[in-house]
Amino acid sequence: MDTSSAHVDEVLARVGQYPFRAKFHLRDGERRQALQHEMSVIRHHAADIVGKRLAPAHPAKDGKQTPWGGHPVFRAQHATGTCCRGCLKRLHGIRDGRELTGPERDYVVAIISRWIEKECARPHPAEVAPQRAVATRPDGRRRSDGPEQPTLF
User: Fold this and answer.
1) Contact present, 71 and 45 (Cβ < 8 Å)
2) InterPro entries from the xrefs (predicted)?
């Protein structure tokens, strides 16, 4: 399977067009975890998780074996459709009912790792939060220019 950067980016762009997949982003704790480790460590974690939870011919609890969060690899698996054998078959064309081959494992790890790299390169939502617009009245005064509202308590 092709693990070149260009191919992996094409796959991520295609899978990212699915609204369900596109809504996933690293949470703060997962982002911190990914940023505090070198990418080689994250790849090692991904390879270990894929080997134990996805590579067997009939994974335990297939379709439910990937937690929704808690580790950047888990979040990436849902975002990339590498969370279960059904999604692997549907989105990546990897047959189920048999153990993943070495190249297939490498492909899945490359997809997961690249998604995490891209997520870490995105600006953190707190860094790009839009400033709240100050409402103005018809006479041009800002709402904050007038007397404060009395408190109820």
Assistant:
1) yes
2) DUF4186 (IPR020378)
Which residue range forms the structural domain that includes residue 17? 5-123
Q: What is the C-alpha to C-alpha distance for residues 93 and 90, in angstroms, rounded to an integer?
A: 6
pLDDT of residue 7: 96
Spatial CB neighbours of 143, under 8 Å, sequence gap ≥ 6? 134, 135, 136, 137
Residue 82 belongs to a domain:
yes
The total of structural domains in the chain comes to 1
Whether 16 is in a domain gets the answer yes
Asked whether the beta carbons of 1 and 42 are under 8 A apart, the reply is no
* pLDDT one-digit tens code per residue, 77-124: 999 999 999 999 999 999 999 999 999 999 999 999 999 999 999 987
Confirm whether 59 is domain-assigned: yes
Backbone angles phi, psi at 35, to 5 degrees: -75, -25
Global confidence as pTM: 0.80
Residue 50 lies in a domain: yes
Contact assessment for residue 88 and residue 94, using Cβ atoms and an 8 Å cutoff: yes
